[in-house]
Amino acid sequence: MNKKAIQDQLNSKILLLDGAMGTMLQAEDLTADDFGGEQFEGCNEYLSLTQPEIIQSIHEKYLAAGADIIETNTFGATSIVLEEYQISTIAYKLNKISAELAVKACEKYSNDEWPRYVAGSMGPTTKTLSVTGGTTFDVLTDSYEEQALGLLDGGVDLLLVETCQDMLNVKAAFSGIKAAFAKTGKDVPVIISGTIEPMGTTLAGQSIEAFYLSVEHMKPVAVGLNCATGPEFMIDHIRTLADISNSAISCYPNAGLPDEEGHYHESPTSLAEKMKQFAEKGWVNIIGGCCGTTPEHIKELSRVLEGLKPRTITETAHGHAVSGIEPLIYDDSMRPLFVGERTNVIGSRKFKELIRGKHYEPAAEIARNQVKKGAHVIDICLADPDGDELGDMKEFVEEVVKKVKVPLVIDTTDEVVLEQALKHSQGKSIINSINLEDGEERFEKIVPLVHQYGAAVVVGTIDEIGMAVDAERKLEVATRSVDLLVNKYGLNKNDIIFDPLVFPVGTGDEQYIGSALETVNGIKAIKEKFPECLTILGISNVSFGLPARGREILNAVFLYHCTKAGLDYAIVNTEKLERFALIPEEEVKLAEALLFETSTETLAIFTEFYRGKKAEKKDNGVILPLDERLGNYIIEGTKEGLIDDLNEAIERGDTPLEIINGPLMDGMSEVGRLFNDNQLIVAEVLQSAEAMKAAVAHLEPLMENSEDSAKKGKILLATVKGDVHDIGKNLVDIILSNNGYEVIDLGIKVAPQQIIEEVRKHEPTIIGLSGLLVKSAQQMVLTAQDLRQAGIDTPILVGGAALSRKFTDFKISPEYEGPVLYSKDAMDGLAVTNILHDADKKVVYLEELVEKRERSKANAAIAATLEKPVRKQSTAAPLSDVPVQTPRDIKRHVLKNYPLDVVQPYINRQMLIGHHLGLKGKVSELLKQGNEKAVQLNDLVDELIEFLKTEPDYGLHAVYQFFPAQSEGDKLFIYNPDNHHEVLETFDFPRQDTNPHLCLADFAKPISSGQMDYVGFFLVTAGKGIRKWAEKLKLEGDFLKNHALQSLALETAEGFAERIHQLMRDDLGISDPIDMSMKERFAAKYTGQRFSFGYPACPNLEDQEKLFRLLQPQDIGVELTEGCMMEPEASVSAIVFAHPEARYFNVDR
Description:
The protein is 43% helix and 14% strand.
């Protein structure tokens, strides 16, 4: 039967791909014998030989459920994977048999009205060329070719290269497929489906745009995404693909992630609901399921997609574009794009020596510096006549792609070297260059490589006559080249970049007089005639042979004129680029005279002017006096040069103590002033403390014993009983100990009795108490009472989120004999501590404080005598009667070692960098603008996340469960899931006194309704091992990292809570709309709400005990302290309601 081509079918409907093969095989409960023996157990592909009827029946179940396309059971059937089971020799046979089984199943269902298709599944193998290595491009190509041959001979309708994590593997697969097409004389459509990790790139680092641009030349019938962690992680990427792709779009996600029992999170209904939204947005042409999906999922997809139109496929979706790890999609406003030229053995002596010495990593650093200074692409030329260009190219490209993400320009005349580079770079590179010097010979050699690996190509305006000097000849050569390359060789105009050639103006060579102007006119002429093509120039050629400073000026002026004429790419040294706008007018005129009126006279004037001239130093290298320099190290938080200057001060005769208490402490005071003036942020204060610690550590060994008592005072710090929060206290410790105080840190959950004993032992000058919770504020009152009973009157400094100046003055202070002082943050604490250690200031400060408190008391007494209006008591505001949302199940779900990758996008960087690390402003905007502080802190966060990902002792764990529940008045009854008459726990929630009189119990159906409702509970932790690593960083003097790591753990726990709550909404059938942004999620714009105990809507922290009894989170390593706090601290628990009107409120308002 002649089946309708899949390309035609794609235009008429959204095609359905089948679901998982592995999930279905798991459900069969196969034994080792079914697999053909123990050594083959787990090799699903081998079942095509041993259990063909099972495989065929699975295919048929999917076809019956409505699949248009079924995949062969060959995901891992390349010889490279089968090698692990010692059956690599049967790879061809296995693929052919598997294809025949699928074809047989398909023939039962396929007809003219509803054609069905078989896709030959080609998985990513177990090796990735860019990430794991372990094989070579050519070995992989052969392995894929053998697989493709088996599939084609078995009769597949198309090939599906899927779960692509590394573009080099995809390129190898494409090379293998092309070879198989050539051998069989059979050409079928190819679909390429990538996998994007939760952090937004493929495993090998490419973004979706870079991925697409790198496969576009393969002309796939469809490009898309599969696998991953579920549909919500594909939204942005599929939307982007739909914008730039000129082929069809496929999307078949996993059914979420499995829990400990192996149950996948997305039900047929929830998955179909999400995928339907993709279709309604007009983003997709092919939809299906990956891991965890079953015929039920496909059936439900078939039902919801009925009648929905496929995405319209456009011909030209974008203009010129190239890619590395990141894409470069060109538009006119980006002109000129800079091509970094220093990675060139002909142009840079330093680079040549590094390559000759095989020092590839430092050589790649040169490329990184070019990018840092603004290069959009990097030109790589390794054609050293005395070197090994082929070997060097392989090694250097492998190294450079680790350091730079921009596209590469491969600059070589040797096609073997060129192919080597293309096999090692994931992206769509630029080939530099081809021309007609030897007729079409070079076109014939290079164009096949463009079609095989994907690339744009630089075409020089040279033909058999020679180099085109005047504009007319440049255009003539360009016109002939376009005609051949587009019409004969099948290239796209967007992929052609003309080099109209530039000649030196300073050599006095007669034939090049006037050539600079001809080049400018040549650019103009080519751009006018071929607007889709681009132009490129090696700018610095123009100034060859001139004095160094003159070259920089001439290059900048020439670049300005070429850009005005329409130049797109400029090959320059981005590290030495003069800004045209900053060049004095007189020098611009000298340069223009030499460029456009070249003569011996203009050359002599120009050369004379620049002879011996140097570029002016960019920095105003004023050398400050030594004391100021020492203070500056602290203010700027830098250690560079610090030790040398400290040694200079010692040699000058200063004692270590004079240095510490003099210039270094002055620097610290200035840090305090700048912080209070909002000119410094927390992160910078910590860097200042690091510099201080390094200075003191260097000076301490030089101190004499008599100086050891140089500490200004002794501070005892503690987080009060029942409270496990210590980030704030740690900050105070770091700030005080680096400002000359001895700090004794008693840690967290410190009982009053322990404080009393330590005060007697150490006799501190100040006691510092910290607490985060409302309950901790009360605990401070009790602690103050106990200290007073013990006869202690040392000044107490209190701080923490739960406290206010008012609470300190009215509630804590009256219970204590000595002074009790409130500080709003660590720097404020330092200021108060400094005052208390200065005898004169202390007296004045305390007198003023007493006076202020007396005034406040008097005012409060007057206010108390005024009559208060009588409040009318009204009943609770009625909430709408909404249907019960029944959860998918009421089992307990434990998620151990949940992937940090998945939680990473849920980490709120505004809170982390803005709140915890103190950066003022909108973090996302500052990052976009390239703000130095924002980028530095963001990089630090990324570095810490990477550390946690690789640390085997770290893990994210969660537990959640839904319970039947009903309310009665202010009470919420939680029933046993197995027996709805048995009450497991009763919560008695407070109600607001004022309108709208809300109480959490209102969000569940009352018993009187006769309906059973459900509430969920969850607990997540991200704190395992954090305290240990934070302590280590603190001891090493890495204070910023110490604080950032603890803050990251807290925000990771919050992000994990956000993720688990989202999974629970999915389970309740109230999934978020697919275009909900993370920002909206952080603002709780979803249906339903979660509430954590101890917060304003449910302030009773003791309710945690009930949650712990219900969920048993001890299994995931979380304990409840005496004060009902979770340990580790970076843990979040909550109760979850599905009611659409559930919202946050404060019971005291």
